[in-house]
Amino acid sequence: PPLYKQRYQFVIDLVKKYKPKKVVDLGCADCTLLWKLKFQTCIEVLAGVDINRAVITDKMYRLSPLPCEYLQPSERPLTIKLYQGSVAEKDPCTLGFDLASCIELIEHLETPVLEKFSEMVFGYMTPAIVIISTPNAEFNRLLPGLNGFRHKDHKFEWTKEEFQNWAQDVCSSYNYTVEFTGVGKGPPGTEDVGFCTQCGVFTRSYPSKGSLTADSCRDTEHSYKPIYNVVY
Ligand code: SAM
């Protein structure tokens, strides 16, 4: 399967493993991953955030209940919410999630925005699990005809060491641990290059911050614009 599908499957496999009830996709774009996650029955709240409103609204109606789902409502509650907002800004609607995915997002962020992103995700949202994927720059030499970055909007592409250093710094600042893996293998003999897409799976090292901290976080002002809300 194409690489983007392998990345989505990587998230789906982790959802199957950890069975989170509340999942948020940061940088959800046209909601393809959300649409796939909708079929994971452990999930009760599914949310998507993207800075680009047009890219979200383009195909979001496929998240609506299907006729058969109206006729035969399932036992499980499911709410799907979409927001326009930046991952650099805090908003109370991002609180309370068990798992956050950030697939091919961080390489689109300028350094100061990336710093705010770390604080917002690992310091404010504090989900139990965070999945981050980004290109592995070392793999680029195996991509024929590539000259420069893989996409013109990329602000950086990191080697394995650069990504791992950033991730370890985040972990020591915010009390998480991380395991590294990836998707997309090169041809035999290129194992040292690593995966085409590198992934970090971050796990919070402390139990959920009880309601006290959560309540004070809820006082943050809203900066996200709700654009879709459906209750199954
Ligand atoms: N996660 C999707 C996927 O894997 O198919 C989309 C990846 S796309 C390469 C990056 C997305 O991040 C775009 O939809 C873009 O609008 C969004 N994005 C960029 N900067 C953002 C920010 N500061 N806050 C939220 N979303 C952002």
Describe this structure in words.
With 232 residues, this protein is an alpha/beta fold. It has a single domain (3-231), classed as Rossmann fold (3-Layer(aba) Sandwich), CATH 3.40.50. Helix content is 30%, strand content 22%. It contains seven helices and eight strands. The protein has helices at 3-18, 32-37, 53-57, 67-71, 111-125, 160-174, 211-218; strands spanning 22-26, 45-50, 79-84, 99-103, 129-135, 176-183, 197-204, 225-231. Strands 6-7-5-4-1-2-3-8 form an eight-stranded mixed sheet. Strand 1 (22-26), helix 2 (32-37) and strand 2 (45-50) form a beta-alpha-beta unit. It is globular. The relative contact order is 0.18. The mean pLDDT is 94. The site of S-adenosylmethionine has 18 residues, from helix 1 and strand 2.
Q: Could you name the key traits of this structure?
A:
single chain, 232 residues, alpha/beta, Rossmann fold, 8-stranded mixed β-sheet, 7 helices, 8 strands, 22% strand, binds S-adenosylmethionine
Number of helices: 7
Share of helix, binned: 25-40%
Residue fraction in strands: 15-25%
* Spatial order of the strands forming the largest sheet: 6-7-5-4-1-2-3-8
Q: Which ligands appear in the coordinates?
A: S-adenosylmethionine
| Count of discrete domains | 1
Low-confidence stretches: none
Please name the CATH architecture. 3-Layer(aba) Sandwich
Q: Radius of gyration from the CA trace?
A: 18 Å
Order of helices and strands: HEHEHHEEHEHEEHE
- CATH superfamily descriptor: Vaccinia Virus protein VP39
Main sheet record: 8 strands, mixed
The overall pLDDT average reads 94
Q: How many DSSP-defined strands? A: 8
Reading off the top of the CATH hierarchy, the class is best stated as: Alpha Beta
